[in-house]
Design brief:
The complex is a heterodimer of chains A (106) and B (257). With 106 residues, chain A is α+β, with helices and mostly antiparallel strands. Chain A is built from five helices and four strands; from the N terminus they run H-H-H-H-E-E-H-E-E. The chains are: A alpha+beta (106), B alpha/beta (257).
Chain lengths: 106, 257
C-alpha cells in the first residue's frame, strides 16, 4: 500500500466518501510535500531542482537533470512510492555544448 | 583582458562522464581559467569525486572550485577534496588564489557560503541553538569570504560561491525558499573588497544576472540556468591598456599556492 493510500484512508472525509474516487482523485498538498522531499532525500534521485505542480488531474514534474537515466529514475521512484497518483513529466536533460558567445564585462 | 569560464551544479556521476568533455576540450582556446561554483557531485562520495576528476581534470587551463551542499551529503568532504586536488582541481573554502594568466593576475576567493535570506527578510542569530547555529554558519562563511577577498594582491578580483550573494539571480525560484538559496552577508563581503565579478550556483530555477548593492556584477552559472557546458566572461580590458593595477594588498595574507 502506498503512502498516498495510507494518508487517504486516515482522513475522515475520505473514509465517509467512496474510497475509490478519493484514491484516484487529485493528489493533495501532503502528497506534493512528500514527493518534493522524496526527490531530494531518495539517494537514487537527490534532485532539489525539480518543481512539483498540482493540477486538476494529477501532478506535473518540471525541471532539468543531467542525464536521461536520472529523468527515468525520478519517474520510476515516484511511481513506485505513489502508484495511484497520475504523474506527468516535463523534465528535460540540460544541454552541455560549448558556448557560442561570450559576455563582455567592464 | 582576462577570460573566465564558469559553471556550477554539474552533479557529476558515472552517467554524466563524457557529456561535458567535448566542450571542455575547447577551453585552452577560449579561456584562461575554469571556475566551478559547487555541487560538482550528487551525494559527495569519493566515487563521484573521481568522476568529477575524470571529467574536469587535465583540461589545459587551471580549474578552481568551491564545494556545494550536495558535495557535503555523505560527510566525506576531506576525501572529496583530496580526490579533486590530486586531479589538479584547486578547492577553495575561505581562502584565495592568484593565478598568473596572459591578461594579468587573476585573484579568486571562494567559500561555499550558506543560506539565511536577504536584507529585511532574513534569519537572525536569535532563539534556539539550532537557529543561532544556522545564522552563525552564514556569518562565519561570509566573514571568511571577505577576509580572503581583501587579502588578495591581484589585477582582477573574482568571488566564487555556491550560495547566492543577492536575490536578483534567484528570480524564477519560489520566494519562500530564498532563505535556503543564499544570504545578504555574502554580498556584503563581496562589496567589502574591489571585486569585479561574483559567480555562484545553487539556484537551478534562478536567472543569470544581478548586482550587489555595491554594484558588483553577479552571475548565476548553475548549469540548468546557463544551459551550456560553461559561460565565458571577458573582463579587465583596462589591463590591456597598461593601466596600473587598482587593487592593492590590504595587509592580510591568505594561504594560497
Amino acid at each position: 500500500m502506498s503512502a498516498y493510500r495510507d494518508h487517504a484512508a486516515g482522513t475522515p472525509a475520505v473514509a465517509a466518501g467512496p474510497p475509490a474516487v478519493a484514491a484516484a482523485g487529485p493528489p493533495d498538498e501532503y502528497v506534493e510535500a512528500e514527493i518534493q522531499r522524496l526527490l531530494a532525500e531518495d539517494p537514487a534521485v537527490a534532485e532539489q531542482g525539480i518543481t512539483v505542480v498540482r493540477r486538476e488531474r494529477g501532478l506535473v514534474l518540471y525541471g532539468e537533470v543531467e542525464s536521461p537515466h536520472r529523468r527515468e529514475e525520478i519517474l520510476r521512484r515516484v511511481a513506485e512510492r505513489f502508484p495511484d497518483v497520475p504523474v506527468t513529466s516535463d523534465i528535460g536533460v540540460i544541454r552541455a555544448q560549448a558556448p557560442t558567445e561570450v559576455e563582455q564585462l567592464p | 583582458m582576462i577570460r573566465i569560464a564558469a559553471v556550477g551544479d554539474v552533479h557529476v556521476d558515472q552517467d554524466v562522464v563524457g557529456r561535458f568533455r567535448p566542450a571542455l576540450n575547447e577551453l585552452p582556446d577560449c579561456a584562461d581559467v575554469l571556475l566551478l561554483a559547487g555541487d560538482l557531485t550528487r551525494h559527495g562520495t569519493e566515487a563521484e569525486a573521481r568522476c568529477v576528476a575524470e571529467e574536469f581534470g587535465g583540461l589545459g587551463v587551471p580549474v578552481v572550485t568551491v564545494l556545494g551542499n550536495h558535495d557535503h551529503q555523505h560527510d566525506r568532504v576531506p576525501q572529496v577534496v583530496e580526490v579533486l586536488q590530486e586531479a589538479g582541481i584547486r578547492v577553495l573554502e575561505g581562502e584565495g588564489i592568484v593565478l598568473e594568466v596572459a591578461g594579468g593576475r587573476l585573484g579568486v576567493a571562494g567559500v561555499k557560503g550558506f543560506g539565511g535570506g536577504f536584507a529585511g527578510r532574513c534569519a537572525s542569530d536569535f532563539g534556539e541553538p539550532e537557529m543561532k547555529s544556522f545564522v552563525r554558519t552564514t556569518n562565519e562563511s561570509a566573514e571568511a569570504l571577505g577576509v580572503a577577498l581583501r587579502g588578495l594582491d591581484c589585477d582582477l578580483l573574482v568571488a566564487l560561491t555556491h550560495y547566492s550573494p543577492v536575490p536578483d539571480t534567484l528570480a524564477g525560484e519560489p520566494l519562500e525558499i530564498y532563505p535556503f538559496l543564499g544570504s545578504y552577508q555574502l554580498g556584503q563581503a563581496i562589496d567589502s573588497a574591489p571585486t569585479a565579478l561574483a559567480l555562484h550556483g545553487h539556484a537551478h530555477a534562478g536567472s543569470e544576472r544581478g548586482t550587489t548593492p555595491g554594484g558588483v556584477r553577479v552571475r548565476n552559472v548553475a548549469h540548468p540556468v546557463i544551459k551550456q557546458a560553461y559561460s565565458i566572461f571577458h573582463l579587465g580590458d583596462h589591463l590591456d591598456a597598461g593601466e596600473v593595477s587598482r587593487i592593492s594588498h590590504s595587509g592580510i595574507q591568505q594561504p594560497w599556492s
